[in-house]
Design goal:
mainly beta
């Protein structure tokens, strides 16, 4: 990778995604589609689980040349305003360091209920401008998904280990990209309870 843009590329900024598409891994034998693993926590209500504040640590590796960057910051999941009642606004901010240069970095996503009505067992994840990113179903504690951004394929894996720790892995491949992004999320208990109260 020729510039420290791995973090920005992962956000799916409009300038980098003229015609994005996404498809859930529908292979019944694929990871995330079977029974819960004993080392993963099933999440029956994904939006309620994610609500609150999380400490974030991300490594970004360019597998082509061995370069590695690091992001450290916070992700806040807060209720979306009307008309998107029942959804969450994902706001991430922190510092991304690449080749010894640190700069401020941020991204915004929208997590909407993925089921009928206000059912938050699953989620539909969108970019800030409303474009579809991927779906998310953590009822087994594990999920895989794909996102096609022009000619770059983002393959994501989500794992929940306990109530306060989950991880994402995004493998990015394309004509000019060969990246691996691994993010650890740990709940910030000092910021208040992460479980939303509903009903």
């Amino acid at each position: 990778m020729s510039s420290p843009d791995a973090y920005a590329q992962h956000t799916g900024n409009p300038g980098n995604a003229d015609n994005p598409q996404s498809a859930r891994n529908a292979d019944p034998a694929a990871p995330g589609s079977g029974a819960p693993s004993p080392d993963r926590l099933p999440v029956p209500r994904v939006l309620a689980h994610l609500a609150g504040a999380w400490h974030v640590e991300r490594t970004v590796r360019d597998l082509a040349d061995g370069s590695e960057g690091h992001f450290a910051g916070t992700t806040l999941f807060t209720p979306l305003p009307a008309p998107d009642l029942g959804g969450l606004l994902h706001q991430e901010s922190g510092t991304f360091t690449w080749h010894g240069t640190a700069r401020a970095a941020e991204r915004t996503l929208r997590f909407l209920p993925g089921g009928p009505g206000a059912d938050d067992a699953t989620a539909r994840v969108e970019f800030a401008d409303g474009r579809f990113f991927h779906d998310l179903d953590l009822r087994t504690g594990h999920w895989t998904t794909d996102h096609l951004c022009v000619r770059d394929l983002y393959r994501g894996e989500f794992e929940v280990f306990d109530a306060d720790h989950w991880r994402t892995r995004w493998r990015v491949g394309g004509p000019a990209k060969d990246l691996l992004l691994i993010t650890e999320y740990r709940r910030d208990r000092a910021a208040g309870s992460g479980e939303r109260r509903t009903g």
